[in-house]
Design a protein that fits this description.
By secondary structure, this protein is mostly helical. The protein has 2 domains: 2-66; 73-142, no CATH class. Helix content is 56%, strand content 8%. Strands 1-2 form a two-stranded parallel ribbon.
Length: 144
C-alpha cells in the first residue's frame, strides 16, 4: 500500500486543511462507480467534510495503515465468529485481493459482498450493511 499511496498521502504532512483536489482524488478511489453515477451528492458532501480535516491528521492516519504487515496467515488462530462486509466495486482493496483471502483464512466467517459499493461500503449501501450485521448477530445469538 505504501508503494501505491505513500507519496500522495505524504503531501499532507503539512499545516492547513486537506486540499480539495486531494479529497476529490481520494473520493475517486473510495467510492464505487455506481455511487459516482447514482449519488454524486453523497460524494460531494464527503469531499466537503474531508476539506475540513487537518491535512496532517489524514497524513498520520494513513501512515497507521500504509506499512502494516499482512496478517492473513494469522487469521486461522482467531476463535471468534467474524463478519466480512465488502463492496464489490472496491477499487482500493478488491474482493479477490482482500476479502476472499481473509474469509479463506478465518475458521468461522460469514462474508457479504455488497453490490454497487466501493471501499466506503457503509456509506454507499448502508441498508445492505445493516441487514448483514443484523443477520450475522442474530445467527450467532441463535447458537447460544
Amino acid at each position: 500500500m505504501a508503494a501505491l499511496y505513500g507519496n500522495a498521502f505524504g503531501a499532507l504532512n503539512a499545516d492547513g486543511l486537506v486540499p480539495r483536489p486531494f479529497a476529490e482524488w481520494v473520493a475517486g478511489l473510495c467510492f464505487g462507480p455506481s455511487t459516482h453515477a447514482d449519488n454524486p451528492t453523497l460524494i460531494a458532501k464527503w469531499v466537503d467534510r474531508w476539506c475540513d480535516i487537518p491535512a496532517r491528521s489524514v497524513y498520520r492516519e494513513a501512515n497507521s495503515w500504509l506499512d502494516k504487515r499482512d496478517l492473513t496467515a494469522e487469521l486461522q488462530h482467531l476463535s471468534i465468529p467474524s463478519l466480512i462486509v465488502h463492496g464489490e466495486e472496491d477499487g482500493v482493496l478488491s474482493l479477490s485481493r482482500a476479502a476472499q483471502p481473509m474469509a479463506d483464512g478465518l475458521p468461522d466467517v460469514a462474508m457479504t459482498p455488497v453490490p454497487r459499493a466501493g471501499h466506503t461500503v457503509t456509506l454507499e449501501q448502508a441498508e445492505i450493511v445493516n441487514v448483514a450485521i443484523d443477520q450475522f448477530l442474530h445467527s450467532r445469538v441463535a447458537k447460544l
